[in-house]
Amino acid sequence: MIDYGYIRLATLKTADRFMEELRNTSIPIPCESELLPVSRSPIAHPSELLGKKLCNRFAIQPMEGWDADAFGAPTEHTYRRWRHFGASGASLIWGGEAVAVREDGRATSRQLLLTKATQTGIASLLECLKKDGKRFASDDNVFIGLQLTHSGRFSHPRGPKHEPVILYHHPILDRKFNIPGDYTVMSDGEIRRLEEDFVAAAKLAQECGFDFVDIKHCHGYLGHEFLSAKTRGGEYGGSLENRTRFLKNVTEGVRANAPGLGIGMRCSVFDVIPYRPDPVTSLPGKPGKGVPEEYLVGDYHHWAFGCDHDNPTEPDLSEAIELFTIFRKLGIHLVNVTAGSPYYNPHIQRPALYPPSDGYLPPEDPLWGVYRQMNAVRELKRHFPDIVMIGSALTYLQDFLPNVVQAALGEGWMDFVGIGRMVLAYPSYVRDLLEEKSLDRKKICRTFSDCTTAPRHGLPSGCYPLDPYYKKAPMSEELAKIKKNLSS
Ligand SMILES: Cc1cc2nc3c(=O)[nH]c(=O)nc-3n(C[C@H](O)[C@H](O)[C@H](O)COP(=O)(O)O)c2cc1C
Fold first, then answer.
1. What is the distance in A from the centroid of ligand 1 to the CA of 61?
2. Across 181-295, where does the E strand assignment appear?
3. pLDDT classification of 295: cutoffs 50, 70, 90
4. Residue 137: what pLDDT?
5. What is the residue with the minimal CA distance to atom 2 of ligand 1?
6. Do the domain assignments include residue 377?
7. Residue 74 C-beta-side C-alpha neighbours within 13 Å
8. Which domain holds residue 283?
9. Closest residue to atom 25 of ligand 1, CA basis
10. Is residue 102 assigned to a domain?
11. In a domain, 194, yes or no
12. pTM of the complete model beyond 0.85
């Protein structure tokens, strides 16, 4: 077994031991040793969003399954995942998963697509989620959004062929993902047509019955790329005003065409330079520790949003603060705070002990990754108390997530606690907490990253190590073969 040099949280038996570990490593994650009764706990503080009365502070993060059919409609795997989201007991369902607004923006040929042709399918997903959710809360107590996206640089709409849509040439990402220097950049006219597609999809989402749409601006996809389009000319590049023109136009279009529909934003509020496995220590199928890609010192921030000028491996929140001021002006008061991208710096985006097949061994204790995102949402919340914020990247906390989020919510670090990978491994995690049941340790996500490795090789996502539905399915054998081939 690899010695990562970091404590395995699964070996710690009590919150006190976890807190001791935090002290030893000087990682300033807040944590409380005793859990309060739910009736007095901040996890169950009521709140109100667009007239809905929510009775807890959990949000299910968007978790894509790469399991739609060729037309972008849901399959049995998709329905099952959404049923679990509904049955989780969380009051906020943030987006379900990333849904492309048009064909060329699909990350894979198995991504959901929202058009008139697939609208009935997407509406039935929502119904299915609500039906299972009704056992725990009425429709009036759950706020449900749909995440709208264009996958931009990471589009593969027709299967394995990479068909990127880019806003500018990026010195590291072009090289990393084989984008030639003369590859055509999306024109301003094409962006205006895409704005119309986002608005049309938002209208379809409203007709389906969603409470809000998320105009996705994170994880390296097209919305996020706008934020870093500093070297682009024209109406959509250069100044932050230009880089948020797409957001402004889509927001105004949604307000005009789908009045009453809520608008939220999932946003990578900081980024750092792309990483790669250390070439010196990597072996086939056994990536070394992550190291930053080579860069010109003092230069990288020209191609990133929210990256420190002098040290591109660290965040700088000053750009996010300017961005949130724009959110306020646009009347966007609901933001899901995330960071980085799973394609080029997964340790920032989704801290894990075990890397996905296109990743690297953690370059730091993954708890630092958790803290970086927690600290970002806390700082932004301090500046913008009027904006409702959801925190991300908490699954790595495992058994101690309840103790940490009780402290974080109590101290006002965030308004809602986002749950991502944990809901795939342990669909009733939130409900068990809310019902004061002891957690089933065998179901807790230990961040094996198979949920990311599987879709990187054309398989649906899911928790292959812990969820019997995937563990016992033929696709699990396929995944095992893929992993074996990679390491031989
Ligand atoms: C399998 C998988 C699918 C994901 N799908 C989406 C998605 O569709 N949209 C999105 O914004 N984030 C997506 N994410 C990111 C998660 O929402 C979340 O930010 C990340 O997993 C970190 O949160 P966690 O520590 O609770 O897992 C995905 C992550 C994984 C592992």
1. 6
2. 212-215, 262-268, 275-277, 290-292
3. confident
4. 77
5. 63
6. yes
7. 24
8. 35-446
9. 393
10. yes
11. yes
12. yes
